[in-house]
Structures are given as structure tokens and as C-alpha cells.
Amino acid sequence: MKMLQQLSEKFADLSKREKWLITLCGTVGIFFVVLTLLIDPVMNTLSAKERQLQSTKLSSQQLQGQILTITAQLRKDPNKELNLEYDRLMDESMALSEELASKVDGLVTPDKMAELLEQVLISGNKLQLQSLASLPAEPIQSSEASAISGYYVHPVKIALKGKYFDVVEYLTALESLPVKYYWRSFHYSVEEYPQAQLEFEVYTIGGRKEFIGG
User: Fold this and answer.
1) What does the CA dihedral 137, 138, 143, 149 come to, rounded to 10 degrees?
2) Distance between CA 79 and CA 83 in Å, rounded?
3) Closest CA to 23 of 32, 36, 11
4) What is the DSSP letter of 193?
5) Closest CA to 113 of 72, 84, 155
6) Under the phi-then-psi rule, with left for phi > 0, alpha for psi from -120 to 50, and beta for the rest, what region is 200?
7) For residues 202-209, average pLDDT
8) Res. 175: pLDDT tops 70
9) Which of 32, 56, 123, 144 is the most buried (most CB within 10 A)?
10) Distance between CA atoms of 179 and 212, rounded to whole angstroms?
């Protein structure tokens, strides 16, 4: 208690400018502690999901590339061994396609992605929407391989403005949704405390290149 009293007396003796600087430093320190405790776990979970999808996509790309190579060879000089290898790769590709299809089944549909982000935002009614746009679809693999796999990435970009804890609440609400999607980019910056700017891209996967929906 005596030490606390001494600290209080020393703080009282400080000038207004010194008191303001100490208070500002304390606020910034608390902000970064909260940032580490709340945002970092969310981002680690998102990174793990992204790595899992990238691994599946890479395996699919490798198999599709082998199939395309063998298909070209079959046209030139077909033989029994090549046919057997081709059949084996086709079986593997079919199994991988089924695995990818099961992942896609759990994702939000492309036509609902932007609407979903906006609905969660409206339900919170705390953040200010700066922009929300569905970006052009991208092939999940090379153009020729995508024609075989039949899947395309459908990204959505959103920009928001608001207070830190409102941002955390919004991200938590998105993560708790029953439908799934993937994160591509995330940028958070403080413009003028306590107002901050949040920009991120999420995407889902669909079986059509063109956008279907409102």
C-alpha cells in the first residue's frame, strides 16, 4: 500500500503532458496484449486450414499433370504398360476428386459468399462497411487441368472500419458459422485510435467458372 501511495504521489506530481504520455503508452501496451491474445489464435486456425487446402490442391495438380502427360504419350505410342499406369493414375485422380468434392460440399456456395459476409456484418451493426465485391473466378489449377477437375476459386474482398473489439466480434462470428470458406489475405491497421481499418479476402470453391446468383 505504501508503494502504491508513493507511485500515486509521483504520478500526481507529473505534468499534464507526462501524464498523457504515460496513459497513452499504457493503452497501447494493453492493446497489443489483447491483440496477441485474441487475433493470433484466430489467424493460426485460419493458416492451418489454408495449408490443408493448399496440400490437397497441390496433390491434385500433380496428378492432373501426370494424366495430361500420359494422355499425350498414349496418342503417340500406346502400349500395355502405359495403359496400366494411366488407369492407375485415373483411379487415384478419381479418389482425389472425390476427396476434393467432399470438401467443396461443406463450403458456402459462391453466390452466397458476399451475402453471408454482409449478413454477419448487419447482425453486429457496429462496423462500417467500406466496400464489398465479388472478384473474378480463378481456376483452381492450370486452365487445361481445371477443365478436368471442374473447380474454380471464387474470391470476395471486403473492407471495414470500426473499433478493435468490434472487429474481433465480427471475426469470431464469421468463424462460428456452420458453413465453411477459406481465407486468402488479412490486413488490419489503426488509422486514428480507436478507429481501425480491416481489409481481407475470403474465397470458396465452385464447379462453375461464371458467377451464379444475385
Assistant:
1) -80
2) 6
3) 11
4) T
5) 155
6) beta
7) 83
8) yes
9) 56
10) 18
CA proximity to 104, closest of 141, 151, 60, 138? 151
Name the grid cell of 50. Answer: 489454408
Residue-averaged pLDDT of the chain: 76
Q: Residue 205 and residue 182: Cα distance in Å, rounded?
A: 9
Residue 146 clears pLDDT 50, i.e. is over it: no
Hey, what's the cell of 117?
459476409
Short-list 152, 161, 164, CA closest to 132: 161
Going by pLDDT thresholds of 50, 70 and 90, the confidence category of residue 9 is low
Give the pLDDT confidence score for residue 212 in this predicted structure. 43
Here the cell at position 139 is 481456376
Contact 114, 204 (CB under 8 A): no
| Nearest to 146, CA basis, from 138, 136, 135 | 138
The answer on pLDDT for 114 being more than 80 is yes
Angle, CA 207 vertex, CA 150 and CA 116 arms, to 5°: 150
Sign of CA dihedral 179, 182, 185, 188: positive
